[in-house]
Please model this.
Amino acid sequence: MQHKKSPMVTIIGASSVGTMIEWYDFYIFGSLATIISTKFFPSGNPTAAFLSTLATFAAGFVVRPFGALFFGRLGDLIGRKYTFMVTLLLMGGATFLIGCIPSYETIGFMAPVLILLLRLLQGLALGGEYGGAATYVAEHAPADKRGFMTSWIQTTATIGLFVSLLVIMVTRSTLSKEAFDSWGWRVPFWVSILMVLVSYLIRKNMEESPIFAKAKAAGKTSVNPLKESFGNKYNFKFVLLALFGAVMGQGVIWYTGQFYAMSFLEKTMNIDKVQVDSLMFIALIMGTPFFLVFGWLSDKIGRKWIMMAGMLVAIVSYRPLYEKMFQVTNAKNKQEVVASTTTTGVLMQRADKDFDSVYTTKKTFTDGTIYTEIKTIPYKNGVAEMVDGKQKISSAVTLTITNKDKWSLIWLVFVQVLFVTMVYGPIAAFLVEMFPTKIRYTSMSLPYHIGNGVFGGLLPAVATYLATSAKTAGDGQWYLEGLWYPIGVAAVCLIIGLIYINPKDKRIDD
Model:
């Protein structure tokens, strides 16, 4: 059978667009975590609801290795093309349904249960997607351009986050705050189904990978990819090396630069959500081309040293960078215009017919920063609610920052995105070159998704827990304590990678 060869532009484009959409689907949940926590979890404890949302977000990451095993096996048995078409449809369907689930107020505990189930389906689908797309592009690419061509796949995770922020920003700007909080947050989930259908039609017309098609025609594909990948001691050694010597560190650096940074700006520094989305958006635009730069550079000087250098600079820079970020908006560094401070109070009726006393305090600083604090005191049957003998009070602070501070933060996030591009740009080519054709999809997918899905995906919840615990304990630099998680994981990975990774084997037709 003669194989019809597709242009590389088509191959890279079709693979990248589909993968980008899957990332979009996956990340709108994280980008909307704050509002989701108020819709699908019991009210009364915003911190607990937010941590529950992060845990549900993390659950999608934890199951990704199982998706990698299931779909990786299919990809090595029946081919790359059909497998990642299935993952695309599974992801799109789950995302659309998340946007349709009634709130906790309507269906009670079924709301978080359904959210968790759909989140798990998203994780399974994503577990099967990346390995297929990276393998498919690598098996078409010339050997001396493999790093550059697969680096387009590496841009999709960032572009997916970028597009999710864009769709959310557009939706927010076209609706009132009340409408967005009520139902508008569902729109980004519904939009997904249109993008998935377009991508499905593009992928449907793609050809199978030539290297896999050749192996299949010669009867050299695996009959049991799982056993040959993980039951063979020689191959399993490379699976472990890929995980602990490269992907584990890459995963935590990716999530620190692109997700923890966003959470830090919003939850720790209390910056207005719209401003956070905007500055993340700009930093990602500035940083994304460097995935291609470092992918290209890895074809010239090797994958290993670029990835190791990225881990090293991240390890030594994270605490100074986040200290600098925190101090940009620290009120202690600013001068308050005392005469402009106002406090107003209103009595607001809740859905259960009881009342909240809501006090809004506004302060202005000489540089233009605006501080808004809303304190809510709930009443039941006319009496203020008590917790542990004290009056129950919830407080929310929002900072509206100046353009100067905004650009300072953009540069500080951009530097972190650069670290991400160093460790992430070359990694698809690096993983593909570690394993033989007949078990490549299975063997590379598992370490990739354990490293990213487990070590990286748990980062927001673990780091938030560490920082919250340090704050409760009275640590003066509590806001930096969450960083010990990515620093520790990346340091272990750097040592293993430096000692054991052999950068010389680049054949993929074995």
Observations:
- The first strand starts at residue 342 and ends at 349.
- The chain has a mean pLDDT of 88.
